[in-house]
Amino acid sequence: MSRARVIEAIKDDFERSYFVTGNLTLKAYEDDCEFADPAGSFKGLKRFKRNCSNFGSLLEKSNMKLTKWEDFEDKSVGHWRFNCIMSFPWRPILSATGYTEYYFDAESGRVCKHVEHWNVPKMALLKQIFRPSRWVWEKR
């Protein structure tokens, strides 16, 4: 698969909110792709798909948008914005921006390393989870 087709597939994945649906183009990634974010790292496409699907099951509503794309010789970088309302009784709202680095295998052209960077500290995201949304207070 050419790098251009892989990039097109990744952009399509953003349109499908892959991060919360787990609906990603599997052929764009190596089976043993390394996935990393500020919370940790692991290898394996099936695990990544399962993690995304599991996270999505905790959400009531979500939006993920690709805001910018950059191509470099050794990688591509997708900048994104994400927000969601979690399905907990207090309906917390999570919001973050960040970017993902996509490294490509020289032979197959597929992604062999997917590294997410969040423009918000981990503790700030954790605090968002425990903060009730305004909607909860307005209903009381």
Report what the structure shows.
- This protein has a single domain (3-138), classed as Nuclear Transport Factor 2, Chain: A (Roll).
- It has 5 helices and 6 strands, in the order ααββαββββαα.
- The protein has helices at residues 3-15, 18-21, 45-56, 122-130, 134-138, and strands at 29-37, 40-43, 59-71, 75-86, 93-104, 111-118.
- Strands 2-1-6-5-4-3 form a 6-stranded mixed beta sheet.
- The longest helix is centred in the first third of the chain and has 13 residues, at 3-15.
In short:
InterPro entries: DUF2358 (IPR018790), NTF2-like_dom_sf (IPR032710). By secondary structure, the chain is an alpha+beta fold.
Key structural traits:
140 residues, alpha+beta, Nuclear Transport Factor 2, Chain: A, 5 helices
Structural class: alpha+beta
Percent of residues in beta strands?
A: 35-45%
- Assembly level: single chain
Q: CATH architecture, please?
A: Roll
Low-confidence stretches: none
Q: Could you tell me the radius of gyration in angstroms?
A: 16 Å
Outline:
elongated
What is the strand tally? 6
Please outline the major beta sheet.
6 strands, mixed
Strand ordering within the main sheet: 2-1-6-5-4-3
What's the number of domains?
A: 1
Task: Provide a count of the helices.
Answer: 5
Round the mean pLDDT to the nearest integer and report it: 89
CATH class assignment: Alpha Beta
- Percent helix: 25-40%
CATH topology: Nuclear Transport Factor 2, Chain: A
InterPro entries: DUF2358, NTF2-like_dom_sf
Pfam family, one: DUF2358
Topology:
Elements: H1 3-15, H2 18-21, E1 29-37, E2 40-43, H3 45-56, E3 59-71, E4 75-86, E5 93-104, E6 111-118, H4 122-130, H5 134-138
Parallel strand pairs: 1-6
Antiparallel strand pairs: 1-2, 3-4, 4-5, 5-6
